[in-house]
Amino acid sequence: MxxxxxxxxxxxxxxxxxxxSCFKDxxxxxxxxxxxxxxxxxxxxxxxxxxxxxxxxxxNSAAGFLETDSNNFMTFLFADSDSxxxxxLVKIPDVNxxxxxKMDAGMLAQFDALGRFSSTFSSYxxxxxxxKERLKSYRIRKGSxxxxxxxxxxxxxxxxxxxxxxTKNGFPLIDTIRAIYNGQLPQVVNKTIVLDGYxxxxxxxxxxxxxxxxxxELDIVKNQGQPVDVNxxxxxxxxxxxxxxxxxxxxxxKINIINTSENxxxxxxxxxxxxNLFLNDPKxxxxxxxxxGMPLTCKISNLVVxxxxxxxxxxxIDPLKDTFTxxxxxxxxxxxxxxxxxxxxxxxxxxxxSTAPQNIKYYLEFTANxxxxxxxxxxxIWDNAFKVSSEARVPLDLKVLxxxxxxxxxxxxxxxxxxxxxxxIDLNLGQNxxxxxxxxxxxxxxxxxxxxxxxxxxxxxxxxxxxSLLLLPSKPSKIIGSTVDANGNIxxxxxxxxxxxxxxxxxxxxxxxxxxxxxTRAATSNSNGSFPFVKVYSNQYLRLRAGFKGxxxxxxxx
Amino acid sequence: xxRLFFFLIIVIITDTASVYAQxxxxxxxxxxxxxxxxxxxxxISPYRTSVGMPVPVLGNINLNVNLRGIDINTVLSAKSGExxxxxxxxxxxxxxxFGVNQFLGLDxxxxxxxxxxxxxxxxxxTRVSNFVEIDKTFFDFIxxxxxxxxxxxxxxxGLMVNSLAYSELGVSVAREFERFSVGARFxxxxxxxxxxxxxxxxxxxxxxxxxxxxxxxxxxxxRAAGLVPVLLDTIDGRVVNSDExxxxxxxxxxxxxxxxxxxxxxxxxxxxxxMVHGSILDLGYINWQSSAYQYKFKEVDVQFGGFSFExxxxxxxxxxxxxxxxxxxxxxxxxxxGFNSWLPARFTVGADYELTFRDRLGVLxxxxxxAEQWRPAFTMAYSRQVGTNWDLTANYSYFNGTFNNxxxxxxxxxxxxxxxxxQDNILFYFFPESARNVSLxxxxxxxxxxxxxxxxxxx
Lengths: 558, 459
Prior knowledge:
The complex is a heterodimer.
Chain A: H1 7-31, E1 35-38, E2 41-52, H2 53-60, E3 65-68, E4 74-83, E5 95-102, H3 105-114, E6 116-126, E7 134-151, E8 156-168, E9 171-179, E10 187-194, E11 199-201, E12 211-221, E13 233-251, E14 255-265, E15 272-279, E16 283-290, E17 296-306, E18 312-314, E19 323-326, E20 336-342, H4 349-353, E21 359-368, E22 378-381, E23 386-395, E24 397-410, E25 425-442, E26 446-460, E27 463-479, E28 483-484, E29 490-492, E30 494-502, H5 504-510, E31 515-524, E32 534-535, E33 541-557
Antiparallel strand pairs in A: 1-33, 2-33, 3-4, 4-23, 5-13, 6-12, 7-10, 7-11, 7-13, 8-9, 8-11, 8-12, 13-22, 14-21, 15-24, 16-20, 16-23, 17-18, 17-19, 17-21, 24-31, 24-32, 25-30, 25-33, 26-27, 26-31, 28-29
Chain B: H1 2-14, E1 49-52, E2 60-68, H2 72-77, E3 79-80, E4 83-85, H3 86-92, E5 97-115, E6 118-135, H4 136-143, E7 153-155, E8 159-176, E9 180-196, E10 201-206, E11 214-226, E12 234-235, E13 238-239, H5 242-245, E14 258-269, E15 274-288, E16 293-304, H6 309-313, H7 315-330, E17 332-336, E18 339-342, E19 346-354, E20 359-370, E21 373-374, E22 377-386, E23 390-399, E24 402-414, E25 417-423, H8 427-430, E26 437-448
Antiparallel strand pairs in B: 1-5, 1-26, 2-5, 2-26, 3-4, 5-6, 6-8, 7-10, 8-9, 9-11, 9-14, 10-11, 11-16, 12-13, 14-15, 15-18, 15-19, 16-17, 19-20, 20-21, 20-22, 22-23, 23-24, 24-25, 25-26
């Protein structure tokens, strides 16, 4: 068979024409695609976290801390402290002593005959205290002994002063001063002796107080050829100038040790907007660290709690119990720790703290020798070592019928720019919207519900304000509390599932918001309708898991 | 990874081959061409001597392009105005992967000679193939979002790539017995380039309910050799130079990639009208040693159920966590390490029924295992011998997941020149928008020796 020569050419040509025509149309259709779009739906795990009371507390309080005892039971503590700065609570008065010597005719004759004259004088230096102190001894931390001699005798004079009860390392204070005549009158000699570290016994052998015995010995040696007459005079003055003691003993008088005004912030209640709660046995505890060897009395006054509105409510303390004495050390160097408690046994503090106050205010006045029993010896040391601390203790043994808090925050408005990660890409919430799902496994004896109020800034009546645009969820979502028995003990955890859905329209509203208020209402778990007191332990927690599922619409230029 | 992606794009655009898609439905029915024996070495051309046109390349060219799971119509059906709706597009794709498979074969030498009772052949052929497909699950994951798979554990193979270029020196022997013929082709292979992501694994599991806990497992190896540039900045801790990172043909990249393969075939005449035949093709491997690299990804198993409060509150803490997660997925280590790659073996099974001296009906089932699934092709063909020198064949095939494949082939002998032309899907010329297969084979053989009486057997 003869094959037409142009067969293959015709076949190829026909096919090529058909191809080019059909293919061209198809390609033009393809080229007409300018953008692509898709509506993917994403599901993303967001949160898997355990929330303990400790964490909740740390999130909401800067003023206090949580104490956990050996049974894991927790107590809120709000503490304040004050201490006494080193100061001299007792002022040791200056002591000035004076002595004068003149010679009568007989003494002059004897002086001329013998060529010298000697005189001895003993007495007591008396410390005249201002606050009924009966000082028996002290050690000088900073002080001096000043001796002045003024003599008009034209002869040489020696003065020896002895204080047998002023000692250092067992040696008494003995001082010798010489005035040597040099042709000028009066002869004047001044001398200062540093007394730091000297022990001073003012008890005169244990039978007295505020006195120091001393002995003066004066010896005048004649300068031959120099005259002497009845008008020649020697004047001696001595001064004890004691600035600070290291310690001091004796009856030290009635002293106001410290007055302190405390204002303890209970900031866990800061954000509450409603409350109906009962706290079992809250306390106000005062603790004292005391190295002052004096009977101490503390008086509490003006104890009030301040409500969120700023109103003060006085705490009524049993009148006999607003003043109390504290133990004190009997030996220098000892420290005594003591405490005093204001609680429901001696006040109505439990009912007042159950009002969820913002602050507790009170005034403390510490007085030593309040009863002024001068027969009792006291001691003080120079640095006092006196510290008073107080703490409001709010044990998490409570019953909450309703406790609502509001937390506010700001939002960065989700602008169009945020939704366009690239100029050629549009990103929007799809028609199916988005859902935020919460799964709570609650081992805490609390239930809670929450709602978020998304708001937008607005000017209302000329004032900056905000308006609510979106309340999510429309009905509060509830986290079920653990089941408790009649004694408040947890039987089983509560499990709850909440979906927070967001439609495209709601999302558009959300994009306009710039702030939010999260309103949370909590209550303690109930037992068949009754609300027992429940105790909160550190090993109880809320496991919160959250996931997001959302449909987005993406359009991108190609 | 960007270099890898870029390279893949270049390969897709410039090459025309597919490792797994060189299935042809028509040429094996042109029994009087030497090329039919490439599908069954037991097919013996009636011309005793056949020489591919002694002009390089013109002897035989074979171009094969298959779109899998997608065609122009698929795209246009998801088009609305100027917008392409990827959700619709995803719904239109009903195969478990889609992409393009390409193959180019060139015969440099193709000679067949009779030696005593044997028909002996020699061929030197270059083959370049690419298989680039996107896992449909992965595509849905991106387009429809992971929420589509809530409560499921899915394997994401992502972008599946397998590129292979090699030369084949084949020696074939066939012999016909009374009713039976057998043939074999022994092939020495010289690899030019190889790239495969087949060993990459990704598994994604997402919980059925909120908070949608997620687990991701990743791992595997990308293997490359020969002309494929180095894909990472370091190999075995050594910083690679720019020459190694660029595509260029160098002799040292082509040596030492040796392989061996065999094709086996048989035919059997059940009666004078009915013949059955079968073959196994490309049973062999290439051992890649020149510029052979393996890129091993760290075995990653990450579970995520949400951020803890510490991570929510502390941006630095959260970022460090996210960075550490990211580092897990980025880590790949390259090493210079040879490997073996198997050729994509195929099988054919068929039957011919001689209606008349000139007319023959045939069926052919082909199969190939690719991308972890069998990819069958089934063909029904009618062939006619017109006069003594002209063969015509037409067929209808189910192939590549499509039913609209109408094949046509012809071979004409002018003197010693046998010109043949084969198109597996001529509908492509008329309905290109719905065509997924384009296969073209043409060439010229010089043949001598009168057709013997073996075909057909009925008289």
